[in-house]
């Protein structure tokens, strides 16, 4: 397990990108994890330290980390920090091969329906977000709110629903 210091962390935001800064950072971290440059158990820089090192807002780093945690890339341990998750590495070869076969079949079926890989990815992301929202609604405590981001149908693209 390595501790990645904020000083050795490299990230160059793209000023010409239409993506918000938090999403650029999130994508960069997800790439480093997926590519194996950050290994399961590695500790990411503390949020405040990384924000200072990159000269960006604390909330930007926090939002990136929260998004990565939501997607299972990292795990936050209260009082200790944020660590690269080992969810994928804990699966044995047999499970990984089964998942790969399922993904291959799914992609082939989507391709046969006329979807490109990018279209399939976008559809999958939307579907996963819908499943997460459904699960959150099922666990929702009366009196709490779920903020749902939707296409810009409304004046600001945000709908708030109360339990």
Automatic annotation (TrEMBL):
One of its GO terms (molecular function) is DNA-binding transcription factor activity. Keywords: DNA-binding, Transcription, Transcription regulation. The keyword Ubl conjugation does not apply. InterPro entries: Tscrpt_reg_HTH_GntR (IPR000524), WH-like_DNA-bd_sf (IPR036388), WH_DNA-bd_sf (IPR036390). Residues 19-87 form the HTH gntR-type domain. This is GntR family transcriptional regulator.
């Amino acid at each position: 397990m390595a501790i990645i210091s904020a000083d050795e962390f490299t990230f160059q935001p793209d000023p010409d990108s239409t993506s918000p800064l938090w999403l650029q950072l999130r994508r960069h971290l997800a790439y480093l994890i997926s590519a194996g440059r950050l290994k399961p158990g590695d500790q990411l820089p503390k949020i405040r330290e990384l924000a200072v090192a990159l000269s960006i807002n604390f909330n930007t780093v926090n939002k990136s980390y929260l998004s990565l945690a939501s997607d299972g890339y990292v795990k936050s341990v209260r009082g200790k920090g944020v660590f690269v998750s080992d969810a994928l590495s804990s699966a044995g070869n047999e499970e990984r091969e089964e998942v790969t076969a399922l993904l291959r079949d799914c992609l082939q079926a989507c391709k046969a329906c006329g979807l490109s890989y990018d279209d399939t990815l976008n559809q999958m992301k939307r579907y996963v977000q819908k499943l997460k929202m459904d699960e959150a609604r099922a666990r929702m405590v009366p009196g709490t709110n779920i903020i749902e981001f939707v296409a810009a149908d409304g004046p600001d693209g945000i709908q708030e629903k109360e339990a």
